[in-house]
Write a structure and sequence with these properties.
Structural class: alpha/beta
Subunit structure: Monomer. Binds directly to the core enzyme of the DNA-dependent RNA polymerase and to nascent RNA.
Function: Participates in both transcription termination and antitermination.
Family: Belongs to the NusA family.
Helix content: 25-40%
GO molecular function, one term: DNA-binding transcription factor activity
Main location: cytoplasm
Strand order of the largest sheet: 5-6-7-9-8
Number of strands: 15
CATH architecture of one domain: 2-Layer Sandwich
CATH topology of one domain: N Utilization Substance Protein A, Chain:P, domain 4
Largest sheet: 5 strands, mixed, barrel
Oligomer: single chain
Strand content: 25-35%
Length: about 400
C-alpha cells in the first residue's frame, strides 16, 4: 500500500471499542466511494475490497473493451489497445478489471479522504454515545468533576464522555471540587449538530426515587412501590409509598431503625428533610398524612375545585405550614389538592384576597407562598418570623397586620 498514513488510520480505528468490524468496513467503503465519485464521476463500476484488520485495501475498476476509436466514457469503457496492455488476449466486448492505486487519486484527494474517514468515525462515535445515553435517561449515573463554570459543572465519565450539570439542576447546598465523583440522573440527551449534549440533574424527583431503589432492597425488589415523590430540592421532600404485602410496613422499611436506611439518601441530597408517607386512595386520610407532622382535627374536601379545608388546633398550624411554607406546599403537590388551613375554635376568618383594595397583590402572594392565605393565619405569626420567611420588609408586615387587625376590631 502506497499510503502509510492511511494504513495507520485503519489500525488506529479498528481497535476503537465503540465500533465493530462490520460498521468500520461500511464507513471505509463509503469514504472511498465518495473519493471515487469525485475523481471519476461515478463509483458504480468499482469493487472495493477491505481488510481492516491488516489495514489492507484493494480498489478494482470494471470496464468494457471497445474499439480504439469508440471510447465515449473513459470510466466505463477501455480501448482495445489499452486493454491488451493489461492482458494481450483481451477482445472487444469483454470485461476488464483493473486495480486502482491510491496514488492515482492524487495527494490532495488522499489527505481529504483521511480527514473524511476521521470525521465519519467521530460521527459514528457520537451517534453511538447518543443512543447509549438515550437508554440511560432517568437512571442514576456517576461522573467526575472536570471543570467548574459559573452556570454549570462539566463532568467526565470513565469513558471520557462529557456530561453537563447545570446550575439549576444542582441542589442549592451542592459544592463541588475538581476530581470528586458526583451522582445524579441522566435527565436529557440531545444531538446538537454531531455532538451529543448529556444533561444530569440532582434536583429531579426521579433522582430521589432512584436513590430509594438503590438504597432500600424492598423498593428495588418491588415489594414496596413508590407512588409519588415531590421535592423542594435541598429543603424538604415527601415520598408516598405503598406495599401489596400486609406484612410489610412500607414507611418503617424505608426509614429503617432510627433512620438508618434513609440517612444515606438525606446526606446525598444535602440534608434534605424527607417525609415518608403511607399512600392511601382515601383523599381525606392522605391529606392528613401529607400534612405530617401536624395532627389534623378535620378535613372538608371540595372534589370539583380540588380544594381541602383543614381544621387544626392552633398549636398544630405552624407544623402544618412548616418552615418557609414548605410542608403545606409539598402536601398540596403530593395530594393534588389546594389546601387551606384553619384554626380550630376560630369562627371568624377572612381570605387575604378580600383585602386586595388595601394590600397589593404581590404582597398577598408572598404570604400565600408560605401557606398563609387568611387574615387570622397572618395575625397569628410573629412579625420577625414573617420577615424571615418572606421577601417582605418589617415595615410592610406591620402595615399588613394593622390593616387585618382593623377588620376584626370593626
Amino acid at each position: 500500500m502506497e499510503n502509510l498514513a492511511l494504513i495507520e488510520s485503519f489500525s488506529e480505528f479498528k481497535d476503537d471499542k465503540l465500533i465493530d468490524r462490520v460498521t468500520l468496513m461500511a464507513i471505509l467503503e463509503e469514504v472511498f466511494r465518495n473519493a471515487l465519485k469525485k475523481k471519476f464521476g461515478s463509483d458504480d463500476n468499482f469493487d472495493i475490497i477491505i481488510n481492516p484488520d491488516k489495514g489492507d485495501l484493494e480498489i478494482w475498476r470494471n470496464r468494457i473493451v471497445v474499439a480504439d476509436d469508440e471510447v465515449e466514457d473513459p470510466n466505463q469503457e477501455i480501448s482495445l489497445s489499452d486493454a491488451q496492455k493489461i492482458e494481450p488476449d483481451f477482445e472487444v466486448g469483454e470485461d476488464v478489471s483493473e486495480e486502482v492505486k491510491l496514488v492515482d487519486l492524487g495527494r490532495r484527494a488522499i489527505l481529504a479522504l483521511r480527514q473524511n474517514l476521521i470525521s465519519k468515525i467521530h460521527e459514528h462515535d457520537n451517534t453511538t454515545i447518543y443512543k447509549q445515553f438515550k437508554d440511560l435517561i432517568g437512571e442514576i449515573y456517576t461522573a467526575e468533576v472536570h471543570h467548574i463554570r459559573h452556570k454549570a459543572v462539566i463532568l467526565l465519565d470513565d469513558e471520557g464522555n462529557e456530561i453537563v450539570l447545570p446550575k439549576d439542576k444542582q441542589i442549592p447546598s451542592d459544592f463541588f471540587r475538581k476530581g470528586e465523583n458526583v451522582r445524579g440522573i441522566i435527565e436529557s440527551v440531545e444531538l446538537k449538530g454531531s455532538k451529543p449534549t448529556i444533561v444530569m440533574s440532582r434536583t429531579s424527583p426521579d433522582f430521589l426515587e432512584k436513590l430509594f431503589e438503590q438504597e432500600i432492597p424492598e423498593v428495588f425488589d418491588g415489594l414496596i412501590t413508590i407512588k409519588k415523590v415531590v421535592r423542594i430540592p435541598g429543603e424538604k421532600a415527601k415520598v408516598a409509598v405503598d406495599s401489596y404485602d400486609d406484612r410489610i410496613d412500607p414507611v418503617g422499611a424505608c426509614v429503617g431503625m432510627k433512620g438508618s436506611r434513609i440517612h444515606g439518601i438525606v446526606r446525598e441530597l444535602g440534608n434534605e428533610n424527607i417525609d415518608v408517607i403511607n399512600f392511601t386512595s382515601n383523599p381525606q386520610l392522605f391529606i392528613g398524612r401529607a400534612l405530617s407532622p401536624a395532627r389534623v382535627t378535620s378535613i372538608v374536601i371540595d372534589e370539583e375545585a380540588k380544594r381541602a379545608e383543614v381544621i387544626l388546633k392552633p398549636e398544630e398550624v405552624s407544623k402544618a405550614i412548616g418552615k418557609g411554607g414548605y410542608n403545606i406546599r409539598l402536601a398540596g403537590f403530593l395530594t393534588g389538592y389546594e389546601i387551606d388551613v384553619f384554626r380550630e375554635g376560630v369562627e371568624e376568618d377572612v381570605e387575604l384576597t378580600e383585602f386586595s383594595d388595601e394590600i397589593e397583590g404581590w404582597i398577598i402572594e408572598e404570604f400565600k407562598k408560605i401557606g398563609l392565605d387568611t387574615a387570622r393565619s397572618v395575625l397569628d405569626q410573629d412579625v420577625e418570623d414573617l420577615v424571615k420567611r418572606t421577601d417582605l420588609e418589617e415595615e410592610t408586615v406591620l402595615e399588613v397586620k394593622r390593616i387585618l387587625k382593623e377588620e376584626f376590631e370593626d
